[in-house]
Amino acid sequence: MAESAATEGVMDQEPLELKITHPLSEMATMFFRNYAAVAGLVLLILIILFTFLGPYIHTTDPFEMVWSPFTPPGEEGFLLGTDYLGRDILAAMMAGGQVSMAIGLAAAVISVVIGVTVGAFAGYYGGVIEEALMRFTEFFQVLPTLLFSMVIVALFGASLLTVTLAIGVVSWTAVARVTRSEFLRIRELEYVAAARSGSARDGYLIFRVILPNALPPIIVQANLMVGSAILFEAALSFLGLSDPNVMSWGQVIGSNRPYILDAGFAVAIPGFAIFLTVLAISLIGDGLNDALNPKLRQR
Amino acid sequence: MGVWNTIAKRVGYGLLLLVAVLILNFVLISIAPGDIADTIAGDMGGADAEVMAEIRTRYGLDQPFYVQLWRYLSGVVMFDLGHSYFFNTPVTTLILEKLPATLLLVFSAQILAVIVGTLLGVMAAKKPNGPLSLTVTFLSLFGFAAPVFWTGILLIILFVSIFPVFPVAGMVDVTVEGGFFVQALDVLHHLTLPMITLASIFLALYSRLARASMLEVLGADYVRTARAKGVPERVVLYKHALRNALGPVVTVAGLQFSAVISGAVVVEAVFSWPGLGTLALQSILARDTPTIMGILFFSSFVVIIVNILTDIALRLIDPRIKSG
Amino acid sequence: MAEDPLLSVKDIVVDFKTRYGNARVLDHVTLDVNSGEILGIVGESGCGKSMTALSIMGLVPNPPGKVTSGSIKIDGMELVGMDVDRLRQIRGKDIGMIFQEPMTSLNPVFTVGEQIAESVRLHENARPKAAMDRAVEMLAAVEIPEAETRAKAYPHQLSGGMRQRVMIAMALACRPKVLIADEPTTALDATVQAQIFDLLQDLQEETGTAIILITHDMGAIAELADTVAVMYAGRVVEKGTVDAVLSAPQHPYTKGLITCVPHLEPDPPVERHELMEIPGVVPALTELGKGCAFAPRCGEAIEKCSGEKPRLLATGDAHVTACWVAQQERAQ
Predict the structure, then answer these.
(1) What fold is seen in the domain A48-297?
(2) Taking the complete model, does pTM exceed 0.90, yes or no?
(3) What is the interface pTM, i.e. ipTM, of the complex?
(4) Do B228 and C101 touch (CB under 8 A)?
(5) Which of B279-293, C8-22, C125-139 holds the top average pLDDT?
(6) d(Cα B201, Cα B109) in Å, to the nearest integer?
(7) How many contacts, defined by CB atoms under 8 Å, are there between A and C?
């Protein structure tokens, strides 16, 4: 530490300023100072506008066969070409985006709810309860998530609901681990001990005292969950395990998969859409992480 | 002694996990609508009640739940995972036939990702703001955001359609003849693209992790001590720092192994790789439950073994880890 | 001093680039160490003590730091600007260093024997077996019982005092000409502190290694050192033989440091109110004015002090001080 002691005198000398800022506004400042995160946010907003407002401008029905199959992008007035059934890919991108993002969001909510519950109880109570819950979590980590959700979808049928549930039910373990370790840390802090000695009830302590303070890393993790749920849905669709009556990005890829060597664009375009969306989400996640992590805030 | 005890405990615990996997499977199947008889009947184009009852008796479906479960569990102990009606083969035979291909893909991709990822991370950590660090950051974003099948398809378009260097599908070329070495080269030729595709996701993760871990370790006092001893910078990096930075990478690599298997399912589908993933897809589409359950069982089995190996590796890397 | 000093640091300047501008961490620091001598460097945290050590080792963190000018010579050999590989051969061989934090300064994943032996293998081309024998020998020399067994221990299996002994063994393994001990006892218990100081003194008498002892413990300086340099804000403000400086401190800062220690009585006693504390804090190195850096905290400051930096000038036999007031008094 001798070295840092020597350099500290230099590094820590910020000009004294006693401006008192609200922590939220400080986080927002940190977030917006991170150009990559802002770029991600802008990108995500553009994608959302494209998928939700686009259909009002570009009114082609994504299920309607409008031209001959595999019209290359840009030809015959089809900006993104047509798929193996001669359907307009641009329209499919818009309709599919709504579904992909909705599934991603819903599945992420499910996994966050399960993960936070398991992690919070494990971290708060400790002892036998923690042991049991963590063994339960480990059990879910051992099962390859995709295989497991494939089994669920296969057994219960491929509908929007089962796909969403299948994704949510298999991917909560990371949230549980993050929540537990935060709870373990915060449980020992003085203000929790104070609230405890004030004979507050467990439910109050868990959800009103500890959870709000444990939120930053959970938020970061939850944000990433949305991204990975979108990828997850795409993988299931690609394998042919999605609701055939609903257009999603993954579904477009899955249905055009047999023809990649003839018309790669019909697969590459929806793949790129997924890539951009998940990229935007993870850029935002990195920004959130930096903004919410007080250790890094000083940098 | 202490180490062996811990390992024995891990093995015992792994066996319990496997039993839990089997029970979960059984529960899922029993609460799912329809059963094998329905599926078979569906394949036959409909069957009357008598035939249905006969099928149910043949597959033991008329027995109570716990009897079926017990039968299955005791079968598994004898490596009997039941009979696949769709392939008309014992499930164990079916799986053992496909397992080597999947293991080859999964392990080669994981090893590639760990080694290249770690090296990239170490080199990037030398200059935290240098071009390689930027590459690692970029790569990790790409690796997380790119759907694995999309990466695979892009590689196919690039290396099969545009520059035909690699075969598009399968594991061997039946027209290739020759000794073991020639055959092995042929497999390697087929393996390259699937392996790179699968590794890309994890390589991104590991390189980012290795870089962060190295950056932390390079600021440690003992690294300064090594430099003060006059240890060459290369040795400082690869001996003193890396050994300490490896822990988080190995831990995460172990945790990610089941995700590697999940990824392999998709990669196998993209490249028609004749492994467990392809088999799983076929049996799911055919609602061949004994096979699906067998695959889930076997892949959990592999994951548990890898977890134990990871544990041992971590102990070898860091003497401070004692037990638990 | 007729013969050339063993280690000679001359006008060394180290700059750090920070967000708030350039910080001059070392400002024309000049020090000499003769063989067989113990030089003490004292001062508050951040005064540049440790940076002086690191610049001698060639380990100034770069970026953001940089040795801007000056010269460091060991046995007449110039270290500033020396080729990295050559410098590496000198580190650990001719100059050994002990750090403040024994708990974190040893690599947790290698045995202590290996860590000592590595140094021997590097600098003496020793075979692994011979290097390990030397390591065990060194562990015995720093009075670690059952050295043979302890050589196979990992750092986490040893106490703080033991680890610091290991660090000393490591630093001395190649019989360096100079040993730099950077606050070697700060992190240790009081009883262990005394043991480590005794050990250093014994080893010094045995081997004749010159020692640079960096500390803020004036008591330790009084007991161990032959000469002492007092540093403030990157500059040496007073230096001389321990007797001269401790008995008749000239710089107000030195006086303050000495009166902070209960047992040291300057002669004649400086005016002391109670166990004193020097008021104020070390100023930001990016905000140093043109005057004496201590002036804002100094009770004796005159007008000249804030206008021009004082240089080190003789204020007694074997005693130099950088203080306008002390120099004026001397002149009168």
Answers:
(1) MetI-like fold (1.10.3720)
(2) no
(3) 0.84
(4) no
(5) C125-139
(6) 10
(7) 56
